[in-house]
Amino acid sequence: MNIHFLFGTETGSAEMLCEDIRDALGDGFDCEITSLGEVDPATLDADTFYFFVTSTYGNGDLPVTAQPFYDKIVETGQDLSHVRFAIFGLGDMVFSETFAFGSKILMEKLLEQGATMVGERCIHDASSPDMPEDLGIPWAQEIVQQPKAKAA
Ligand SMILES: Cc1cc2nc3c(=O)[nH]c(=O)nc-3n(C[C@H](O)[C@H](O)[C@H](O)COP(=O)(O)O)c2cc1C
Question: What is the percent of the chain with per-residue pLDDT over 90, rounded to a whole number?
Fold first, then answer.
């Protein structure tokens, strides 16, 4: 199974979580990790399962480096009906009005463009005692077992 982690981050937590999940999934998965800032949505393919992992900044926005990925989908109206994905959001309940909105708006855009989501969006609150990997690893392990994630 090909897995591509696409992260949006400003201080590195989302990228570290991708690495932790990749390490926990172990052998048997062909994993790649890339910043959303380096990915063109037109290149997403049907043979890969995508884990989007992004934090939230500004007024409930995506991190600066992830914004162009989102904007490109909006500009081009990119058809994503061949794309299968799961999404993890990092946020902080200190920002209660925009809690984890970066992952929310990205999820909504991917769905709007026809992509298939596997599992529920998982959210980490930086004000909670949990570490992102405490939530993210069991979540991802369950996702990759689902037939919809395995199907090419
Ligand atoms: C300036 C600033 C603005 C933030 N705005 C939000 C926000 O609107 N909503 C939210 O849920 N979290 C917000 N956060 C919290 C971050 O999303 C959270 O700390 C996250 O874990 C950072 O992950 P990263 O290291 O991958 O960027 C903000 C953090 C900072 C420093």
Answer: 94
